[in-house]
Amino acid sequence: MDWTRHLLIVPILLPLVTGAALLLIDETRHTLKAFINLASTVLLLVAGLVLMHMAASVPDGGGALALSYAIGDWPARFTIVLVLDRLASLMLVLVAVLALASLIFSLARWHRAGPHFHSIFQFLLMGLGGAFLTGDLFNLFVFFEITLAASYGLLLHGGGAFRVRSGLHYISINLAASLLFLIGVSLIYGVTGSLNMADLAVRLPVVREHDRMLLQAGAAILGVAFLVKAGMWPLGFWLAPAYMAAAAPVGAVFVVLTKVGVYILLRLTLLLFGSPAGELTGFGGVALLWGGIATLIFATSGVLASQAMGRLAGYAVLISSGTLLAAVGLGDASVVSGALFYLVSSTLSTAALFMLIELVERAREPGADLLAVTIEAYGGEEGEEEEEREDEAVGVVMPGALAVLGIAFGCVALLLAGLPPLSGFVAKFAILTGMLNPGGLGQPGEIPAPVWVLVALVILSGFAILVAMMRTGMRTFWAPVQPVLPRVLVVEVAPILALIGLCLVLTAAAGTVVSYTDATARALHDPATYIGGVLGGGETSGGVR
Amino acid sequence: MELTLAIAIGVLTGSGVWLILRPRTYQLVIGLSLLSYAVNLFIFAMGRLRVGAAPVLADGVTNPADYADPVPQALVLTAIVIGFATTALLLVVLLVSRGLTGSDHVDGRESR
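Predict the joint structure of the above. Result:
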């Protein structure tokens, strides 16, 4: 039974080792590299599922955390600690599913469009795994930087002036945000003398009054760094161009990057500024709520104004971010539970949209000219052989390809807009139920004004997405007199259909999923579980400097 | 000493912020570098300023007050390495952008 403890480090070690090993394999051996990458991602998914099972089998409210893993087995408070709970394992599985889908999609052509795609891909997974599992703020910074560095490489994958320009903006913004991250972390360390999240949660309520202002400043600066990542208005203007410029499978993985910001905000606000935090309880909640509302307004107008489909998808990411941020700001357990369901559903469907856009745009413009140029630039030595394989592969035209794409497009539109019968509806329904029943279902309770604004905006943003998607869909599928039959491979359609299929499963098994997210939300609202699990023995000594 | 350090951090941050708001990519890189120096000094200062105190505890019973806090020093080291690597990456992207667009404006073309 003891070896299962070590499973906790697999989501970090496995991609690291795979990514490093892939560096050593020559760039021309695409098939081998793709196979290793695929195998590693599948293993990651398996590990994620096992970890999720472990996390879910802990009795709800039993006082014990799923698992904490002290690297090097130093005593708690001194060690670097990895923590597994329901939330972390949910995110791990989500990332692995998404990675698998976009990896399979990229195998059709994208993975050959530039050097070291597979290594960078694995390093991205390593950074994400670490960010979800880590139990202290500084390692969070390190894993965040690994994720970002890998995302810089992936964003530029495929090359071209547009990618380089938006890559430049993306990197500059994120470097500046990382500096804010460091300032926030060091301020918090300066006041409390600890970086371990559980230890911080113990120490925060007993921070002396004249230090409290400094601590709040530190937490706020740290929060800004994550909000840049989550794309909150007015910090999210970089997002739509960058996501639009990214290659389709990269854009699909990037959807989860904004959710990392949301994940950390959710974890930290509820852990550090949850109910036992004394004077600091609820710190930042109002800012998140209004920030989320502003993001929703901005993104809704953005969706309506978008002509290009890539930009539309970028704003759909922002809508999802805005909804989640506002839900985190409300901080109510039932809202958070709905928000987690929404997080899973919207991530899967937005990723499917990113991949779908590439295929649909192929129906509009037959020549994928940019791709051809980049493949020429990078695959020079094996030019002729490459051409042949390309012809052979792309030559297989799927019958009724356009019909399949149209149906998939319609499903994604339903998912994003939150219409029945798909999981987008269940997710929004769960969030709205939480918002409109603040005292619990059937209990009377006062609904504050901002919540009404939020409810209206959540519904309105879904409507805006519906309008925008239908407009684009009609223009693409119905308007052309002589539609260009897109050349679509089965490996490209399969991951999209699989993601939509997963959303169907989410709909059918909504009861199970919601009871999981409910348990997750309850655990998040009970920081004592987390603290006890990490520090052990529930000691509450508050050594404040 | 506190005043000197505070002024140094302030000047670095001020110059850095001004530079990253400028339109040239070279100014951007220098600005980000200055900012990262400022942040590194700031992290260091958050471990409290001590003169002539070793950062590592000796064996046996010791008074922690005699030593400087080693954690911020470790953090600064990590931050320097990561900042260095990401800045190098940014430089490469800058050069590519300059080569592709023929302009060192951050938008790839001069604003009119």
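Chain A touches chain B through 29 residues (CB under 8 Å).
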